[in-house]
Amino acid sequence: MSSAPGRTALITGAGDVMRELMTRAVLFQDAVAKSAGLNATDMQCANLLLLYGPATPGELAGRAGVTAGGAITGALDRLERAGLVRRNRDGADRRRVMVTADADELWRRVGPSYERIATSWNAFLDTLTDEQLEVADTVLRQASELNALEIRRLRGSDDADR
């Protein structure tokens, strides 16, 4: 194990890199959204539908951290006009509306940006040993879980961020 001052510097550096990564991830998502003619919130709503499946407008609002009223309705209206989501009545409960992402259309519009970054990322990952990949997986999964926990705290919610 490293000396305390060296270890402290490494931990501080890792925190700085994580902040930079999160900032760049937000800016990347914003740039991808704009390249597809969307705003960042609309892009995140579409991405949440891809990640976690169809949702009611209220469920999607909770996942995205926006109000269930006007903000989510506006986002869904824009996404529907863009051909990226569909709103359909739930077959089991006709009063309920389910929102589904059109994955093919979304990937047609934003896929090239993600494919470029995935190609570069995978090329880098291929240079790592299996042990390094396992450590990277552990670090990234823990960072994701800690972010999800803090999102719930900031929103004052015990619900999962999905």
Characterise the protein shown here.
The protein is mainly alpha-helical. The chain has a single domain, classed as Winged helix-like DNA-binding domain superfamily/Winged helix DNA-binding domain (Arc Repressor Mutant, subunit A), CATH 1.10.10.10. Strands 1-2 form a two-stranded antiparallel ribbon. The longest helix has 32 residues. It is globular and about 65 Å long. 17% of the residues are buried. The model has no long low-confidence stretch (mean pLDDT 90).
Topology:
Blueprint: H1 4-35, H2 40-52, H3 57-64, H4 70-81, E1 85-89, E2 97-101, H5 103-125, H6 130-155
Antiparallel strand pairs: 1-2
Helix pairs in contact: 1-2, 2-3, 2-4, 3-4
- The strand order across the widest sheet is 1-2
First and last CA, distance: 38 Å
| Fold-level CATH name | Arc Repressor Mutant, subunit A
Helix content: over 70%
Ranges where pLDDT stays below 50 over 5 or more residues in a row are none
| Average pLDDT for all residues | 90
Annotation field: number of helices: 6
The main sheet comes to: 2 strands, antiparallel
Cα-based radius of gyration, to the nearest Å: 19 Å
- CATH architecture group name: Orthogonal Bundle
CATH H-level superfamily title: Winged helix-like DNA-binding domain superfamily/Winged helix DNA-binding domain
**Strand/helix succession:** HHHHEEHH
- What is the oligomeric state here? single chain
Total domains, how many? Answer: 1
In terms of DSSP E residues, the strand content is 5-15%
Structural class: mainly alpha
DSSP E strands, number? 2
Assigned CATH class: Mainly Alpha
Bulk shape: globular
